[in-house]
Every structure is written in structure tokens, then in C-alpha cells.
Specification:
Blueprint lengths: L1 H22 L7 H124 L6 H107 L10 H31 L1
């Protein structure tokens, strides 16, 4: 901050000095004295100006500092007020939510109680109707009860009415099961009779179809037997051909072995290949024949040269 203020003061001083110098009479004062006075006056004016501006600056700085402190205090007060107001709003909203929730719960509870009361009232009416129906049924069944009492007196093996009723229910269930079994047996008998009629109607056709099927199977059997004989003869022929090829292969391998042994004897070295390595033996024989052919060709070429000499 020092450099900008110094520039400001320097510019102000230069402006003031130029103004004063232009306003004075330069004719009656010696130049050295005039310059000295001007310098002294400039220093005094500059000092006064700097002091005044310094005081103004300090005053403004203190005022600004106090203003900033007041603003920060007000800001803190406003923040506190906002926090308190926000808390107040939250508390009010929480109280309102609790009140609304309690009111909704009370309405739901009242609705459930009303529904429960209606259900109990309807259940009570249903029970009253059931009681009236059972009362009417009791009045109608009272003669039956007297009859059951008389039957119990005549049947000493039953001590209580429920025993007699259970016995009657068991007999009724047995009768129903027997009727159901009888109906099932009659249905099975009817189905068997229907199958018997269908078999009687279709046995001749079935017998004819079976005869035709038997003839077809016999023809297929004869054809299969013929094919079997044909392939058996083919198999025997193939076996014979294979035996001949095997015999020929054995003879070939023996001839190759003999040639290889003759080559080894001619070269006066022992056989270095396996007995079963027929291809290697033939290769050695081939190389020997090629070498021998080359040797004979060179001999034929050398004979004319000898005769010419």
C-alpha cells in the first residue's frame, strides 16, 4: 500500500509547486535565493500536504475499519437471527407435522372403530338370525328327539343318542360306498361287453391283416437270407484276397530282405536296419543300384577313351 500513496503524494506536490511558481513574480528575486525559497516552501507545503493527507487517510482507514466491524457484527447478528428463525420454522413444521399425524391417526382410529362397530353389529344380527333359525329347527326336531328317546329305550346297546346317530351315519356311508362300487362295476361290465362286441366285429379283419403281415415278414426274411448269403460269399472272397495279398506281401518283404542282405554282403558291412523296416531296406537297395548304375556308366564312358589311345 506504501508505493501507490507515495506516487499520489508526489504527483500532488508537483502540481502544487508548478502552480505556485507560475503565480510569483520572478523579476525582483535573485535566482539562487528564489530557488532556495522555492525549495523551502516546497518542502513545507509538501510536509503539510503529506501530514494532512496522512491524517485524512488514517481517519478514513479508522472509519472503514469501524464500518467493517459494524458490518461483521450485523452479519453475525443476521446469521444468528436466520439460524433462530430457521429453527423456529423447523420447530413449527415439526409441531404441525405431529399435529397432522395425530389428527390422521385419530381419524384412522375412528374409522377402524366405526368399521369394527359395524362389523360387530352385523355379526350380532347374524347371530340373532342363526339363533332364531336354530330355535325353529329345535321346534321342528322335537318330535324326532322324542322318537329317538323311544328308540333308545328299545335298543339297550346304545347308551347315548350320538352313538345311535354315529351308527346310522356309518351305515349310510357304507350303503353309499356300496352303491358307488356297484355303479363302477356296472360301468366296467358295460365297457367289457362293448370291447367284446368290437373284438367280435373286428377279429376277422385283424386275422386277415395278421396273415398279410406274416406273408410280408416271410418275404422280408427270404430277402434278408439272400442278402446274408451274398455278403457271406463276398466276405469269404475278401478274406481269400486278403490272404493272397498277405502272402504276396510276405514274399515281397522276404525278397527285399534278401536283396538288402546281399547289398550288405557286397558292401561288406553288417545290416544296420531292423528286419521289419522294409521301406528302409528297399531304400538302401535303391541307393546301391543307383551307385552301381553310375559306376557302370562311368566304365562305359572310360572304355572308348582306352581304345582311342
Amino acid at each position: 500500500m506504501a508505493v501507490p500513496w507515495e506516487k499520489y503524494f508526489r504527483l500532488a506536490l508537483q502540481k502544487k509547486l508548478s502552480t505556485k511558481i507560475q503565480g510569483q513574480n520572478m523579476d525582483h528575486v535573485p535566482p539562487p535565493l528564489l530557488r532556495l525559497l522555492e525549495k523551502r516552501q516546497e518542502l513545507v507545503d509538501a510536509d503539510q500536504g503529506l501530514q494532512a493527507q496522512k491524517e485524512v487517510f488514517q481517519t478514513m482507514q479508522a472509519s472503514l475499519k469501524q464500518r467493517w466491524e459494524q458490518l461483521e457484527q450485523k452479519e453475525q447478528e443476521l446469521k444468528g437471527s436466520f439460524v433462530r428463525f430457521e429453527k423456529f420454522l423447523q420447530d413449527a413444521e415439526a409441531r404441525r407435522s405431529r399435529a397432522l399425524r395425530r389428527a390422521a391417526e385419530e381419524r384412522q382410529l375412528a374409522g377402524r372403530r366405526e368399521a369394527e362397530a359395524l362389523r360387530l353389529r352385523a355379526q350380532l344380527e347374524e347371530l340373532q338370525r342363526e339363533r332364531a333359525r336354530l330355535q325353529r329347527l329345535l321346534w321342528r326336531l322335537e318330535p324326532c328327539a322324542r322318537l329317538l328317546g323311544q328308540v333308545m329305550e328299545q335298543l339297550p346297546e346304545f347308551q347315548e343318542v350320538p352313538e345311535l346317530v354315529a351308527r346310522f351315519d356309518g351305515l349310510a356311508d357304507t350303503q353309499a360306498a356300496l352303491r358307488l362300487t356297484e355303479r363302477q362295476r356296472l360301468e366296467e361290465l358295460e365297457e367289457a361287453r362293448a370291447r367284446l362286441r368290437r373284438l367280435r366285429d373286428t377279429w376277422q379283419d385283424e386275422l386277415l391283416r395278421q396273415g398279410q403281415r406274416r406273408a410280408q415278414l416271410l418275404e422280408q426274411l427270404e430277402a434278408a437270407q439272400e442278402r446274408t448269403l451274398h455278403w457271406e460269399s463276398k466276405c469269404i472272397q475278401i478274406q481269400n484276397t486278403a490272404a493272397e495279398k498277405t502272402l504276396l506281401l510276405g514274399r515281397t518283404r522276404m525278397a527285399a530282405l534278401n536283396l538288402f542282405q546281399l547289398v550288405c554282403q557286397h558292401q561288406r558291412r553288417p545290416p544296420a536296419l531292423d528286419i521289419e523296416d522294409t521301406e528302409g531296406q528297399l531304400e538302401q537297395v535303391k541307393l546301391f543300384i543307383l551307385d552301381l548304375s553310375a559306376m557302370l556308366a562311368s566304365l562305359h564312358q572310360a572304355k572308348p577313351a582306352v581304345h582311342a589311345s
